[in-house]
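For reproducibility, we list the full input for the zinc ion complex.
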Amino acid sequence: MWIEGAKQAGVEAHPWDNLAEEPLPTSVEIEGTTVPVKWLPKPELGESGGDLRNVVFVYESAEPHLRLRWQWQARGDFGPVEHRITIENLGGQEVWLLMVDSLRLDWKVTPTQNLRNVYVEKGADSPSAEGTHLETVSDGYNWKGKSSTYAHPVKDEKREIIPAEIVCDSNGNGWYAGVEFSGRTRISLERNGTSLKSVLGLDPEPGPFKTRLGPGETFETPTVFLGAFRGGPDGAGNQLRPWVRAVLGNPVTWKDPQYPLMVNNSWGSGMQVDEPLALKMIGESKELGLEMFHVDAGWFRGVGDWYSEPKKFPHGLAFIADAAHREGLRFGIWTDWTQAALDTESGALNVRDPKVSDWLVTDLKPDWKPEDFKGQTIDIGVPEAHDWAAKEVKRIVEDYHLDMLEHDGYLVAQGCVQTDHPHGPPNRSTMRVIHDWASDFVLASNSTDVSYHAVRAYYDIYEKTRREHPGLLFEICNDGSRMVDFGSAAHGDYFSITDTYDPLSNRRAFYDTSHLLPAAMLESYVEKWPVPKPENFLYMLRSGMMGWITIMTDTTAWTPEQHEAARKAFELYKAQLRPFIRDAQMFHISARPDGVHWDGLEYWDATRGKGVVYAFRGSIPDEAGHHFILAGLQANKHYRLHFEDGSQPDHEVSGSELLGQGLSVRLWNPLSSELVFLDEVAARK
Ligand SMILES: [Zn+2]
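The corresponding predicted structure, in tokenized form, follows.
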């Protein structure tokens, strides 16, 4: 059925046949007893629109009284189709559901078929040495990728992925699938003989998963998407990225011609931000041509006490916002609005307040202390905690005249010891609690269920805030890229893609993440870095200019020459690079950056017949030149090349050369860069 829907949505027919039957849940638990469920089809309740864009099968169980909806939907005019299952409790009794996967695939493959699985890690903390994985799917292959609300990388252990898989044959054809949910999820892929199986959905581990379904309540599996592509992993990305924009993205954001914005962020001065610094940065932002001033952590009275510190901001934050607005800049701030600490002032979320302590994910010891900008997370899956947080977010946005709200840290719970919350209780005998950076992280049998409820609450709060404040931007940071997935992509406007901000880490995180998500949504913070030569300065800036750029260094420390170079680079970004970052196709035209050798990235906008290549030379002294094999061009056309820094005179090259031997770039010095603009030459008479 989905293939019909996919065809309707403009996906070309392909040779993949799914043999998996999706089993409906065979039992539930009621008062601790397993009760079998018998599902009967209810065709009269289903939907099958004439255009096959929305197909719903409905089943019901009489006792216990449950209704299951099994839905396929094609929301885009192109790209993947989406699938979800919902189960509604129509009876008067509480029911516990066991694991319901979102989607099971079982493709028939031939024993000789060469297949690869491409997946990417979250840039959480620092990008790892690998980041983008291209694995051969041979007989016996057995892979599992996991994602959660807060990736916690552990050295030498598998890292969390952005939850998607791209499965590709040797001709570059294949299918991709991913999960539109920020809770604990997993994707598995297994090849055995002629069977290639994949399962997507909530993470059953550590489990066993159980979730409560009260009378009138509905459980919904994470929505998954499934699409078919040609042209290898970049072919998949060039379909998926525009689909994320068109279907999951916020239309108001994408209509904004300044999106992705150029930002000046105060973290270059750390927690020391205050009114004089803020006003100085607003002036600097204006002079440099930046478009938003972003106050990072340090502005508040304390963790959980999201009121400006009067000693630092005697006139409050709205005063700073208004000052930014007067200069034509937008204004945003850092928060971690689910964290509580010890402040006792009115409005503060205090862990010792009996009401608040009931919302915390663990019971804190009497000597517990917060850190500068870290506290203990509340579980917003609890309705009262959700309501408090929704009101607090509204107050912060309105009182501080915000254009952008960043959330950082461990925001959405994924593990909780409490037994009187909507999620199930943990099994205490197998429970683990990790204390890190002032917060407790619980890994227990109920973790996936905790994340399920808390993520729904998080989405609800941001959906409501967006309705009330169209045009408000949400930055999803979470200590740098720890909650990057297709559910957060549907509820926020851009992601911090790593928490390590040197040029190589920025390029690595961008290389990985941009396989799956629109470049405009991918924010690189550019921090202070040694720049003995002017070309090192441009290399540093451009390493963060392939998507959304946020400057996070004290720009008053820049020399007049650096100011001028930055101003020119920002002007070029707005006039020429941003249109590609928003609209163009993207090609990964090198191996993943290693900082030693060359790396590069190509944008190509076929509609305008224009593109750009970002070329970076690594640290090695004896590699003055490199050939980038380009993509997306036509062999029989000609292209005018413009070298922005003048490393070569402008000239014309044939498409066949650019696609064959490649674009030749030469740079004198290591750790330098060039931007090569491509312009299709009109056919000669
Ligand atoms: Zn809880």
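The pocket of zinc ion is lined by residues 361, 379, 381, 416, 418, 421, 423, 450 (CB under 6 Å). The longest strand covers residues 672-681. Both points were considered when choosing residues for closer inspection.
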